[in-house]
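I'll show a sample.
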Amino acid sequence: MSDSIDAHPVISTKHELLMRLRERSAPDCAATLDLDSGVGTDVRRKGEEERLLRIARLRGSLNSAHDRLDKQQAFARLAGYAKAGFEIKR
C-alpha cells in the first residue's frame, strides 16, 4: 500500500465516498445516558473524526481528478483545432 497516514486504498472512488457518507452518524438531538460515558464518547468521537477526514480526502482526490480531466479535454480540443488549422487543403 502507500506509506500515508491512513491504510485506505490508493484509488479513490465515488462509491467509497458515498458509502462513507452513508456511514456517518447523525448528530444526537437528545441527551442519552451511556454507562461508558467517558471512554465510549472518546472512541466514538475519534472514529467520527477519522471518517470525516477520509471523506474530506476522498472529495479532494475526486475533485482534483475531475479538474485534471476537464483540463485534458480542453487541451485535446485545442490541439485538434490547431491541427485542423495547419492542415494543407488540396
Remarks:
- The CA atoms of residues 12 and 57 lie 9 Å apart.
- Residues 14-25+38-86 form one domain.
